[in-house]
Structure formats: structure tokens, C-alpha cells
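hey all, quick one before standup. I had two proteins in the batch that finished overnight and I want to keep them in one place so we stop losing track of which output belongs to which input. First protein below, input sequence then C-alpha cells straight from the run.
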Amino acid sequence: MDGVVEFKVSASGQMSLPAEVRHRWGLDGGGKVEVIDLGWGVMVAPSGTAVELRRELLPSQEQHAAFLADLDDPDLMTT
């Protein structure tokens, strides 16, 4: 996988992880993933890894909240 993959989202909000990712993450038989709402996008990670990933890669919660507030979008104020 080259790092960027386009997903199709169904009308009910469902999408499928590529088989290569499911295999690498040990989800061949299904399982849970974690999603972090970034406001401008989402990050999907294997279950149990998103908190550490967010800490390593993304701004603090305070910085993130300030970013969302600057967007002036009430729907994003609860993310």
C-alpha cells in the first residue's frame, strides 16, 4: 500500500478496510478499530493504539480544541 487509499462510504456510513490492512492488523475475521475525529478528517488505527498514536503525531487536546474553535463550526465543537 502506498499510504493513500480512497474508500467508498455507504449511505449508512460504512466503509471497508483494504484486505492488506485487515491482515496486517490481525482483523481477517473482523474486529474493532479506533477512529479519531480531527475535524478536517479522521484517523483510523488498530484498537488500543489511537491514544498513543495521537500523542505522538498530533497536537495536544488544548491545541486541537483551539483549532476547532477557529473553524467556527458548531458541529465540530464537540469532537
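OK second protein, same deal, sequence then C-alpha cells:
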Amino acid sequence: MGTAELFEELLDVAGRVSPKTVAQALRRGNLVGLRISQLRRERGISQSDLGRRIGVTQRVMSYYENSATRVPAETLLRIADALKVSVYELLGRASSGRAPADRKLWKVLQKLESLPRRDQKAVMRYIDLLAQANGNGPG
């Protein structure tokens, strides 16, 4: 899949997840954090609640979702259990029975991960422009 096709798919799912959120995750190299955040929100769970379920604070949950730091393996297992998904899904290697729109977004993100870094940066710039156009400010 080329960059142009990826742009088209991103446009298709842009209304489902904030372009700013995707851009930030891509810039930080933290797609696992983005997946955790999305799954948590789909289930109506706050960062504080998920943190309590796995034995960490809300601040630590925010850090896992928003920083480039890797989540420890044992913590990934606890998060997966709390969200009732597999670790493979958190890592983007499998999908669950979520709504088709969500699966499509994750497939797009997986394709993005496979692109050369130069093309990933081009996509991130494009997402930043979308976020600005939607009033979400600079990425």
C-alpha cells in the first residue's frame, strides 16, 4: 500500500478518532498506548479506574498512553486482562470483535507502521494538518 492509499484510508476513519490523537501517538512511536487508550474509552473506563484495576495510578496510566516509554510486559498482561483483550491485540498483532470501523482504523495503523520512516512522517504531517483544519490546533 502506498502513501496515497493510506491517506485515503485515514480520511475514511478520521471522524472516528481524533487526528491529533493519532498524530501524537505516531510521533511518539506509541501505538500500543493509542490502542490502550482507544480500548479503554470504548469500554467507558477512565484512566483512574483502569489504573486501580491493574495497580497503578491515573498518572502512570496517562504516561503509558501518552509517552514513548514502553509498558512493562507484566503490566501489559494486567491491562489486557482488565480490558478483556489479548496482549496480541494491544500490540496490534490481532483484532477483536470490535466494530468494523475500529478494525479498519487499526489495520490502517498497522499498514502505517510498515511504511518507511520518511513516509510515516509525511502521514503524520498530513494528520497534523487535518487536526488543525478541525480546530484541534497544532499536533
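Flagging for whoever picks this up: The longest helix spans residues 117-133. The two ends are 25 Å apart (CA to CA).
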